[in-house]
Amino acid sequence: QKVPLTGQQNAAISALSHTLADRPFPAHLQDADNDSAFEEAGAVDAALVNTHQFYKWFVQLESAMKSEIDEKYRLYESTLQEHVNTCDGILRQVDDTLNLFEQVQSLHSRAAIRIQTLHDACDQLLMDKQRLVGFAEALRSHPSEIQRATSKFSSFARLAQFLL
């Protein structure tokens, strides 16, 4: 079970923390790994003695932070620019494809008109053929009728000569 600390205990811990924070770490107990971790994190090795050093350190810190932020935004901007370029490429491909579809549609319309014209011409030729076939059949039947009529006339003429 955990029991919360009393106010007096918290005050004692705080006083010890402040006292130990002011004292330097013994040289023979310094941890090399701990130092390198602080250096990697950008910790300040030297103690700040006066306000001028603090302001100098603070300006350097602000500059470093601004550089990091600027770098993030430059990276973000370059990523966005790549996306814009990709989108522009896709739009060009879509436009090209749309133009090709319009060309295909135009060719299809022209082909449909030609097919309709050809179909109409074929229908006209079929009607002409049927008329010509009818006319040819009439011509074929005409000589046989003429021969029948001629034979009847000649038989009437013989009969008329016989009677006369």
From TrEMBL:
Assigned GO CC terms: cis-Golgi network; Golgi transport complex; membrane
UniProt record, GO biological process: Golgi organization; intra-Golgi vesicle-mediated transport; intracellular protein transport
All residue ranges annotated as the Conserved oligomeric Golgi complex subunit 3 N-terminal domain in the record: 76-141
InterPro entries for this protein: COG3_N, COG_su3
Protein name: Conserved oligomeric Golgi complex subunit 3 N-terminal domain-containing protein
Species the sequence originates in: Aegilops tauschii subsp. strangulata
